[in-house]
Amino acid sequence: MNNQNPIFIPGPTNIPEVLRKAVDMPTIDHRSPVFGQILHPALDGVKKVLKTTSGEVFVFPSTGTGGWETAITNTLSPGDKVLAARNGMFSHRWIDMCQRHGLEVEVVTCEWGEGIPADTFEDILSKDRDHKIRAVLATHNETATGVRSDIAAVRRALDAANHPALLLVDGVSSIGCYDFRMDEWGVDVAVTGSQKGFMLPPGLAIVGFSPKALEAVESAKLPRTFFDIRDMAKGYKNNAYPYTPPVGLLNGLKTSTEMLLGEGLENVFARHHRIAEGVRKAVHAWGMSLCAKSPDLYSDSVSAIRTPEGFDANRIVSHALNTYDMAFGTGLGDVAGKVFRIGHLGSLTDAMALSGLSVAEMVMADLGLPVELGSGVAAAQEHYRSSAAQARKQAA
Amino acid sequence: MNNQNPIFIPGPTNIPEVLRKAVDMPTIDHRSPVFGQILHPALDGVKKVLKTTSGEVFVFPSTGTGGWETAITNTLSPGDKVLAARNGMFSHRWIDMCQRHGLEVEVVTCEWGEGIPADTFEDILSKDRDHKIRAVLATHNETATGVRSDIAAVRRALDAANHPALLLVDGVSSIGCYDFRMDEWGVDVAVTGSQKGFMLPPGLAIVGFSPKALEAVESAKLPRTFFDIRDMAKGYKNNAYPYTPPVGLLNGLKTSTEMLLGEGLENVFARHHRIAEGVRKAVHAWGMSLCAKSPDLYSDSVSAIRTPEGFDANRIVSHALNTYDMAFGTGLGDVAGKVFRIGHLGSLTDAMALSGLSVAEMVMADLGLPVELGSGVAAAQEHYRSSAAQARKQAA
Amino acid sequence: MNNQNPIFIPGPTNIPEVLRKAVDMPTIDHRSPVFGQILHPALDGVKKVLKTTSGEVFVFPSTGTGGWETAITNTLSPGDKVLAARNGMFSHRWIDMCQRHGLEVEVVTCEWGEGIPADTFEDILSKDRDHKIRAVLATHNETATGVRSDIAAVRRALDAANHPALLLVDGVSSIGCYDFRMDEWGVDVAVTGSQKGFMLPPGLAIVGFSPKALEAVESAKLPRTFFDIRDMAKGYKNNAYPYTPPVGLLNGLKTSTEMLLGEGLENVFARHHRIAEGVRKAVHAWGMSLCAKSPDLYSDSVSAIRTPEGFDANRIVSHALNTYDMAFGTGLGDVAGKVFRIGHLGSLTDAMALSGLSVAEMVMADLGLPVELGSGVAAAQEHYRSSAAQARKQAA
Amino acid sequence: MNNQNPIFIPGPTNIPEVLRKAVDMPTIDHRSPVFGQILHPALDGVKKVLKTTSGEVFVFPSTGTGGWETAITNTLSPGDKVLAARNGMFSHRWIDMCQRHGLEVEVVTCEWGEGIPADTFEDILSKDRDHKIRAVLATHNETATGVRSDIAAVRRALDAANHPALLLVDGVSSIGCYDFRMDEWGVDVAVTGSQKGFMLPPGLAIVGFSPKALEAVESAKLPRTFFDIRDMAKGYKNNAYPYTPPVGLLNGLKTSTEMLLGEGLENVFARHHRIAEGVRKAVHAWGMSLCAKSPDLYSDSVSAIRTPEGFDANRIVSHALNTYDMAFGTGLGDVAGKVFRIGHLGSLTDAMALSGLSVAEMVMADLGLPVELGSGVAAAQEHYRSSAAQARKQAA
Predict the structure, then answer these.
(1) C334 is a domain residue
(2) Which chain D residues contact residue C354 at CB under 8 A?
(3) How do residues C173-223 score in pLDDT, each as one tens digit?
(4) Which of A181, B214, C387, D308 is the most exposed place for a label (fewest CB within 10 A)?
(5) pLDDT of residue D390
(6) Is B155 marked as a binding-site residue?
(7) Environment class of residue D382 by beta-carbon count within 10 Å: exposed (0-12), middle (13-18) or buried (19+)?
(8) Residue A216 and residue A112 share a domain
């Protein structure tokens, strides 16, 4: 790879120049006041991105997976029951983590491509009169299938059942990309990472805890030290960190939140939606369909595109890489070989998106799929053209 | 501009990551032996790129314009006569420089879009029995018109006329992009810069002098100090420089020549030709034509594309920048408003080229030109697909 | 802080230019073969630095603290007993982590400034006939006190007691700085991070597991997912990672091991020793003493310097930062206010070390301590001068 | 060289992190409005640094030598007479350039170490009743000898003689380091470069022209194109440049002037003076003396230090480089082998300065000079300590 092409994996994203420079720092004394001047603006910025005023944010040198572990080990105890839907690889993995940590998981199995079934959740929660279910797990954006679930609906299910379970949400590939409302939706723990909507290199697990989740921490008996938010909270109060902080990435996070909030979150979301719509119009022009079952589930972060029966979708990804130095995402788990994915999260221009679509067309043509060269590009161009003026106005 | 889109001006080019890092150096002591370990490999590398074994290379902290001034002030004296064709903005400017330096220029005026008329040169040189013409100036690649002239033919004209004039060649936007043979073509001074085929930031004038040109230096009476190659030559012998050297750019030049020679010059040229062909196929698919009069004149560095009569071509460039953050080149001089230019020199992938063509299509459609969305892209895709396997083999 | 002074905290260290550039990478597809070409050389390089041929190396997006958690959760079960000495802040914290994970810790309390008492360990292990002690924890370099413990002696204690306990070693601030012999010393888990001897930004926990430790993994019942080495091992086999890998830091680790192994580990250790000796000679010239009780305990990574009774050593650190923009380390835990620390690990030149000593002298003079300006500098200069020729030879 | 030590050559200087990042830019379209947003603030910033409101600033991709050539070729004609003192290598070279450009130079020969003799200038100018002398050349800071000349006195000499000659001043190693007052001193052309007080990599010639100098441009007959300020002026008006601009360096210049003006010029000068004084106190503590004849001539940019009779001063420079990786300046021209130089311009901390002095002491001791280790360091420490509080206040 020569590093010149944009990448279209569903994260890590293309890193804007200013963020690369923010991360690339000489060593500072992380016990000096300079550190606090990086840490606190980063935490405050994340809160605004999460749309929370009552929650607290903690940032670990880790990844989204570490964020999940932070969420469960700080709020739950061995043997606790949790409710979760398995509708893709990432919800699957979080369930697996819970089981490995000795939690009992009530799994609602969905077809991959579906969203979280809030109705089913409401049924289950309503029947759980003893409130044995201590937490509901929800994956906001299933990166494997390109499905956006309705977290507000999950909250309504909890409320309708009058159930006190905590709501733990994986927002790894949604936060910073499309709307996420921690306070309004009553999210108790929100989990994300540095390498998606924040457009940074991987290396940070970013979690938000609601006051209710914070209350659960003392009684949570799952063992933890590295991921214990109590040590983090204690450190932050003193402009410090419980161990060596990843200063460069935190400085990047500070700068990233400045960029996102400077642009305006609603503009960031509109920008993602516009780019994503162009990709989807191209997919439809190719005569293909998305893994996501219906338009309300379409993710503005990533599109998983179904390939024809009998065709190995992984060939698209490997051919794109080997022949055109371009990275798309393979299908994972149940949809391995059945879909390929185009990540369209983070900072992407029309030109970048069109370059990805152009290459996808060449690849599919090379592999004998019935895709007309230029057809998807034209559909996306039409969309980008017609919405360009509005996009410019928002960016200004 | 958000810096994420590739640029399509005909230089400076997109800078590969490895070259940005090579240039971005902490200060070293330029009087220490470390400097020689940067300077000499850079000079040797440039010689190989120029295909000269008998010439000497000098590198100035300057630009191609400074390279022209180096060429004439080190070989000519006030009142000397030179022969030159004016077939574009850059040949025009070099002629202007000669006149401002008190040289008499016999100008052969050509239509912009034509190459250097070697036949006319032969006529003029043959008639110059007293050898009053001391030098012939030739612009290898007219960046303004996208025209490649035939330098070998100019050499043949000189030889046919049995004329001793020096052959001074502007190879600013050809060297490192397509074939240039200093020794074989009897080029006496070759001029280029850092920001074109070498893919570096601007800031270096790079010149090659043949033994015959070196002989002319002592008798050349045009005043010069900064551009005097005698000071340079004396410095180089001692691993030194006559003034403060641009160490980072020289380190970049060393690395750039390693890249070009590592890839193989013929592969570099084939790569440029392949990308350029894709662009030209798109242009033809749009129903448009190039400024260059005939295919033998097509430049593999830049294409100047004629727009319909009555349409201001500059609108394409400004609309592309304002609406899609993409930079193309405007028309200059005689063809201002009549052409826009797509630079395709330096390190470009298929995906990058296609992103430029996609945007060009949107821009032209936005401005009401009768261009079908996706049409040029499809033509370029077809070309890139069919030649991708061969390109891969060469890159390996 | 203006970032121009070297830092003298005991890690993170000053980052060499080449490592900053290795870490600062554009995003690549971490599921492509390119990733394996970064990952495997990094792992192989670390093995050589650990001096192990039989062990396996795992690298997590985390810190040394995460490395400790990896060590215990992958080898132990709730209620297991471990043996550890508390002789500084970092051994203290590791003990605390064990207790929070439900392990029973037999703590040997030492005065801070002492090394691990191998004799006492041998007594305890000999009396543990039922082998209830499942692991011995040892902190090779106590960063808080500047004490190097004798790991070979701990191994001899285990062997003399014929005890099968695992030997888990914190080598965070020793590995890559002074001699560490995983195989020869029978270390079962070795723990370090990116930001000390490897001279990288923080963000990686690096652990080596012996075959015996690997055997213990399946029966280890402490819950873990993020830090489960089985997922790592499975990923590595496929050039993959169980979650998003910190590619830039891994690329830095690859480059760092190339640097260390290229220089030669024994030369790296000699270099650290030489710089450290200069610092110690300065300390003695100031009439001060080290926290480490005896010369055999002196650490080549960091020196903790005792200040006079009644003087708050933290004032040195804050005055140095506020007045001279220079970062030293404060005393931690039991020696807070009683020592200040000069980190001398990683890539340091004589000039850098002398700048630290110069500033330390000014600071102490400013604060009224009876230190003669230039005295420590002169002692260090004498040492560096007399050993410079030898150092050069090793570097060559 | 491992790049970790600060350098003590009298320019290029150590480059602050923020300036390295400002220079390291991806390519932009230099014909787009973005370019004007870099260019004009850079030019305006330079004007403020030059303390001129009536002059115009021009910036060339070149060096200080190119700045000299710009000064003379834009204001003078072949055969014109100029007055200059030769009191060091750089004044010598400028004189040489004038002669090579066909100017008649009345040279006042001074001992190296002396300043410009304003009295002698006044005599000569007074006798030049026909005003044949068209320009007076003055080197503000003789980098070779560490001598600061009194430009205000040269202006007074011109005024006392009621002489209309232009005053052309080489401020390459003074501007941005110590006080320079273009308007107040009636400087007609001020010349500097990017790599001294502006702390950038080399590659820019920066010149200021007074209204009077601008008037002289049309009648100046020395041939020039690359350095013709008329083309520059015309370009600037259109946010453009007469050839490819060195965008990254110009962006660095913009940022550099923001840094200097943000700190406050008087604070910048006080900072240079303070660091320089520490170096001079060290020199005197070593029992050595400066090349500059008297304290009023001491340069705050660079100190040239006389070594004992019979000792080859170059050995200091080569030994420092070979043994301690540290770069000092050699003696040039008349004082070659008789002095070595410590550059102390640009961004330097106390710690950096002390590291240079420490190494100088080791080097001199190694070479058998009677220098007591720590003696110069102690003298400088005393100075830095006593002035640290005041320095902090200014920096705040």
Answers:
(1) yes
(2) 354-355, 358-359, 377
(3) 999 999 999 999 999 999 999 999 999 999 999 999 999 999 999 999 999
(4) D308
(5) 85
(6) no
(7) middle
(8) yes
Q: Is the pLDDT of residue C1 over 60?
A: no
Residues in chain C with CB shorter than 8 Å from the CB of B21 are 21
Integer Cα distance of B186 and C4 in angstroms: 52
Is the ipTM higher than 0.95? The answer is yes
**Interface contact B21-C17, CB threshold 8 A:** no
H-helix or E-strand spanning residue C256: helix C247-263
Point out the residue among D2, D16, D351 whose CB comes nearest to the CB of C355.
D351
Contact C358 D381 (CB under 8 A): yes
C-beta separation of D359 from D325 below 8 A: no
Are A173 and A191 found together in one domain?
yes
Tell me, yes or no, whether D4 lies in a domain. no
Residues A211, A120, single domain; the answer is: yes
Do A301 and A209 share a structural domain?
no
Query: In angstroms, what separates the C-alpha of A17 from chain D's closest C-alpha?
Result: 9
Nearest CA in chain A to B354: A355
Of D230, D262, D294, the residue that ends a domain is D262
User: For D179-207, what is each residue's pLDDT tens digit?
Assistant: 999 999 999 999 999 999 999 999 999 99
User: Is A112 a domain residue?
Assistant: yes
Distance from CA of B355 to the nearest CA of A (A): 5
What is each CA distance from C50 to C57, C59, C248, in whole angstroms?
9, 13, 22
Cα–Cα separations (whole angstroms), residue C313 to A122, C318, D375: 60, 9, 27
Residues of C with CB under 8 A from a CB of D: 2-6, 14, 16-17, 322-326, 347-352, 354-356, 358-359, 361-362, 365-366, 372-375, 377-378, 381-382, 384-385, 388-389, 392
**CA B244 to CA B38: how far, in whole Å?**
14
Nearest Cα to Cα of residue A117 among A94, A83, A144, A93: A83
Q: Closest to B20 (Cβ–Cβ): which among D24, D34, D242?
A: D24
Which residue in D195, D201, D226 is closest to B65 by CB distance? D226
Full domain range(s) for residue B356: 264-395
Whole-number Å distance between alpha carbons of C344 and A233? 31
Q: Are residues C71 and C179 in the same domain?
A: yes
Q: Which token pair is C11?
A: 């890690």
Please, what's the largest Cα pairwise distance for chain B?
62
